[in-house]
Amino acid sequence: MAYNLLKGKRGIITGALDQNSIAWKVAEKAHEEGATFVLTNAPIAMRMGEIKGLAEKTGSEIIPADATNVDELTNLFTKSQEVLGGKIDFVLHSIGMSVNIRKNIPYTELNYDYFQKGIDVSALSFHKMLAVAKKLDAINEYGSVVALTYMAAQRVYPFYTDMADIKAMLESIARSFGYHYGKDKKVRINTVSQSPTRTTAGSGIKGFGDFFDYANEIAPLGNATAEDCANYCITLFSDLTRMVTMQNLFHDGGYSTTGVSSAILEQLGIEQQQG
After folding, report:
1. What is the CATH number of the domain that holds 16?
2. Structural domain contains residue 75
3. In terms of pTM, does the model score above 0.90?
4. Starting at the edge strand that comes first in sequence, how are the strands of the sheet with 139-149 ordered?
């Protein structure tokens, strides 16, 4: 059911690769809620993905952009305003990549060139995007920028290696830039810390399947799906959350505040006390 939460709003959605990606679901939901937007991704990702089909489905234009390149981001925000007919109301940053994880390099043995690449793609791209938008005054007052993150930024998940450090930087940028952008232009910036999600990128992490099942057993509501996350992002893009900024918002079925679940104790053969 649609509620017209984004009727008349204009946006930029990054990172839609295929139907399993959260960004893809966000685009579908934004379209249902009345928004118009452009889709963007790095040229190489666009060749690998199915973004053209999403653009046709949502009536959107595609503007390729390397999120690590300030000139290309400048073109993205400039051309998006031309295509959409005005300033931007919402932006989704759904960009993440770790060469160290792809190559199964342990955290204590990181390749630092790969690490720097991961930082540039997954965290500094967020700062660059916000800096370009602010310089161009491209986002309307009370516009909303959301970046996707994960709880490994706060707690240790050994398999997440350098992406844990990178996500911590991403969340810090959201807070710091959120202060300045909010003070100067009333633009709000938040991160959403999502459950383990069966996306193409997430499923590529070693041991992901086992951890997905573990988190699902811990969370009282179970893992939040990509579609659930998209719904949450839509609320953050809407005027209903216009005073929410500089927050890291957990969207994980209660996983982040649950120490242990009955299901896990039962699997371990631990007798539970009834209190």
Report:
1. 3.40.50.720
2. yes
3. yes
4. 61-62, 36-40, 10-14, 88-93, 139-149, 188-194, 248-251
